[in-house]
Amino acid sequence: MNSADLAGGQPTPLQGELLGQLLGEMLERRGGVPYYKFRSMHVPHWAELDGMEAKGWLKRDNDHYYVQSTAVPLIDTPAARERLANIERIYAALRAQYLQTQLRPYKVNELAEAIELTPEVVLEVLRHMMDTVAWHMGSSLNVALEEASVSPGEKILQFSTFTELAADVRSWQRGPTYFPGTLADDRPQEDTRAESVPTHSPTALTSAWPPARTCLQGFKFDEIKDIAGLAGFDVTAAADLVQGSGSNVTKGQLLAAIDRQLRDMDAQHTARFLAILIEEILSREPEAEEKLSGHLSRLGWSFIDGKLLPVALFDSGALEDMPADAHPDLLKAAQRLRDGDLGGAISAAAGAVDAAVAKVYREANLGDPTRATFQEGCKRAMAARGILVDLEGRLAELQWQPADAGLFARNLEGALVRGAYVMQTLRSHMGDVHGSKPILRALVFDSLRWAELLVGALLVVKTDPAPKG
């Protein structure tokens, strides 16, 4: 299987066929498809199944497969088209309901009558749609049919159709797109935005809560409750906290209630809560992103393209292996990123590589490094250091075949040279100590990681003998 297929937004023909089979069986069963049985019947396709699960198109729960509602628009079968048509009818009615009454729950029986479907069909489709939190604020579907209801949320207004919403949700699910080392957790989670935060300990994660809490204080009381509710705060537990005429309830009391619930969450729920909360804050107040990013950076976090990432920029062990004169520029780059100086961070990262190249040029008598482009200087310095020859020799000591060792070493060298081009281009278009150039924050991380790799390749001396097998 081509790994690029899993990285894209559309299933391959084989993936589409597997999704269609699973959805058809799921609809027939009115429940999940037995996980182990299905896999035992599709042994050659485990990689496709695992890839679709990682992307959030499939979910494994209690040893059953479930096709997620947001994947239904990707499937071209009669059953999928019928399910999507019913989803769209329900979504359109709920959207119209929110426009008229906002937060009032919509009874399933009333919804069914409005769109001319049976209540049983509406209930089944709604239960399928509930696997994404993007459009609703909660439901009561596991009660008697006459009491069942659903509450559409504000975000339903952002997308005119469920198909559009599903495409947006799938864009969250593509996993980390940054250079390795950003520490984004690519394990599938119950909610798509749960993947946006690495599942560290709750204590580590909650360090990102105070900046978000500060931003929340700028919203009205009911807005705070809505935002927190969308993120997973149990609003029923705070039902007595209502502001109104003669009420003494304050925003501080509501935030204290959120504090208590957050303290009791495990790491996975904390991750989901913070990712969705920050996303909802920024969807309402986009101008708060710069201030929030600055606060998060100082606490070791960064919110990039919907992902809350720990700013663990450099491997301390790798820094210890480098000569001391390589440290200042790398650490300066990290400090500038922490302080929100993105252009300065790119410039400092490139400066660290410049210093490493200049050192090799001096030691190898290669002349003036400034007469070469950034990429050419890196390539010539790597050749002078004998990185390719050294690596092939070390791999041979590990009993690698010469052809395999040579191919691997050449590809690694090529990757480093291409990384130098990436840094050269970013420095030209985004590196700026004056802060006047537009910058994609995600690419700043890439720049710093490439700098660490290039400086390490040029300056770290490999003197330890390779272990014998």
TrEMBL record:
<feature type="region of interest" description="Disordered">
    <location>
        <begin position="179"/>
        <end position="205"/>
    </location>
</feature>
<feature type="compositionally biased region" description="Basic and acidic residues">
    <location>
        <begin position="184"/>
        <end position="194"/>
    </location>
</feature>
<protein>
    <submittedName>
        <fullName>Uncharacterized protein</fullName>
    </submittedName>
</protein>
